[in-house]
Fold these 2 entries.
Entry 1:
Amino acid sequence: MLDQSLSDTLTYHHSMLQDETRTSSFLRAILGTVKPGDIVLDIGAGTGILALFACLAGARHVYAIERDPIIELARQISRDNGFSERISFFQDWSTNVELPEPADVLVTETIGNAGFDEGILGWVHDAKQRLLKPEARIIPRSVELITAPVKNPTDFNLVSDWRKDLYGFDFSSARTIMAKQLIWTRLSEKALLGKPVTVSKVRLDQFNNSNVRAEVVLEITKHGWMHGLVIWFRTELMPGLNLSNKPQNSVPSWNQGFLPLLRPLEVDPGDCVQAVIEIDANGANWLWQVDSNKQSSISTQQRLVHSEKLAVNL
């Protein structure tokens, strides 16, 4: 029987496995971090590839947590490769799981297009409280969220198209809703209108508050119409080993995020744009406010409508 959902799921996970930059970087980090005899926790295990890597590194046992049915494939793959005795699988949210022993190492690839949008801060914060040894090592070591003002007319059309009457009726209220959405995009460096700045950099083995709120000032370096903010991440998997989906993105598994304005703003070199970005622990709720020193009337406060996709522990 045709199961399009299953086909899409397998295609998605295969694409991540085929992303050599992503997968080989995690392999290097695991081989460089996990020590023989370690207990390893894998949150968001997917097909179980990181759990298999941990076994190769010498882990005594791996506890792999995955909410979605793909975990059944992960179990079968572990049996097919002779690791079923060393990997225990849990189909649940990690926040609901109790382990028989605390882990020496946590590995999690719950890094979203916008860094924090798959809930990595919430999962790690909970694991540190309940599932890890106090001195546990964590992969990735840190996640940094970066933003820049951007010219992005293509994705902004998703907002602006709602300005027009449709069949003689006013649908403009949909524009306000669409302007509150975190939109996935894939942009080149040429789209940036100003210098990138760090919104937040979190050391996962040290942080205590899993919510993020940051105020940044963005310096405009090019004339153009600013349609919003582009956001991306840089993660340090281990000292000296980094991954990033910055424009121009060379890592196929990730796009970037676009935080649209309600209306575009014309900017010139030397202008400054102030932005406030807030993100909650599960990555599903975002607020952003943008003010310019040219037209303070364009200030907007926008909220990302809850999306189950963003809250998935995967």
Note: The domain at 4-108 is CATH 3.40.50.150 (Rossmann fold).
Entry 2:
Amino acid sequence: MKSRSAGRTIRHLSLAITLILSACTSVGPDFEPLLPEADTDWPIPVMQGLEPAAVVPVRWWEGFEDPVLNELVNEARSQNLQVEVAALRVLEARARLGIARGSSYPQTQVAAGDASYVSPSESELLDRLGIGNFWQYSLGATVTWEADFWGRYRRGIEAADASLRASVAAYDQAVVLLTAQVVSAYSAVREAEEQMRISRENTALQQRSYEITQVLYRNGEESELDMQQALGQLLGTQATIPVLETALQQARNALSSLLGQPPGYVDNILARGEGLPVVPAEIAIGLPTDMLRRRPDVRQAELFAMSQSAIVGLATTDLYPSFSLFGTLGVSSGGPGGTSFGDMFSSDAIAFTAGSNFVWPFLNYDRIRNNIRIEDARLQQALLGYRETVVQAAREAGDAIAGFMGSRAEVRILGDAVVSAQRANELSIVRYREGFSDYQRVLDSQRRLFSQQQRYVASQASMVQDAVALYKALGGGWEDRTSMPPIDAENIDMMRQRTNWDELLIGEAE
């Protein structure tokens, strides 16, 4: 009789499960992929040397053909602390996705056992009934499963999955920014070195001029004024060297920190090369639509909106009743009758219950609807944030193109200006020695030469910085990642010693 009743109960539960699963749906908005509006061409005319139709190289910094720079970028990408924090956030998001996926299975799974010794109080009635001290044993399991009738758990998985992919995009964006920062810091180091070289060369040049005026003054051929003017200009040029030494050390320290290392780490690496990076003659910039598809921050903004859309659906499920199935299975023995622990596994000791219930918080509708409104407002903010990201991306790319074209034209002009200033300085010294002009011409020509050389180096460095800004605006430099963002081996070992990570530290990120 008991087995027939159990069979009917199981059939009813199976029927209920089938009906629930067949009726499952997902409430709330379904996210549609966002298609950014972009022009088919850049808004400003592109000069020769920028190729809109070409594909932006993945490892764009290698176009500078500087082995030292390549080494620094590769080392920074593997050692930078902020980038590794971004990689750990990806790992965190993977674990959160695992939690969301686990919610689809029975939400309550409890196994419990009990052994207790009972000593009743002394009583004549209990003595007559033969009830004395005894042991009680029980062992059971309870399972509760809420059917995903309205898509609560599916929406949670959607939100967690979008958050995971957004964390990967954030990692890619961190790599893009780090690469640009390393190239910029390296350029600052080489610029300071070049400026220091120019200062020392001009110091030597002006030292010779000062010595000439000194000899002429002692021989009575020139006045003391020429000598003092030459000395003043020499000292002014020498004064630029300590400032440049400070700037150089600060730039080196910044570069070391980008590699996750203390000051002084990059000194030996930098000693293996010299000179500013040479900007490629041809730079591929692609088209605006390519830029928006490539940039990780645009992708991150879209995935954030996708996650928030799923959260709106998750909040909406609170408006509807939840349906749950539950069951318990247990065994027990012991008691006043004198049964033992071994009797717990006999058929008479087995008991089970099964059933279903539903919960409908209809009296909380006002609170639930306001919570949905909060999440919907956040979704709209995310959508507007995506549009703002697209607009800023287009502006950054346009500014970078304009800046690069301007700096390249300036470098070309200043290069000619330096050649002219060098020739003028040579002629002024010759005319002064031959007595055809006064020393003021020499002072002016040397001052202009030093100034033009300084401007030329600064302009070359600015062109490198503008090229870096252009590559950063185009969003390149992350595409060579094919799997989960890397984490330092020592940190992985440390984490495995603390926690069982299984396969979460291995495998694809998306």
Note: Strands lie at 50-51, 108-118, 134-146, 283-284, 322-334, 350-359.
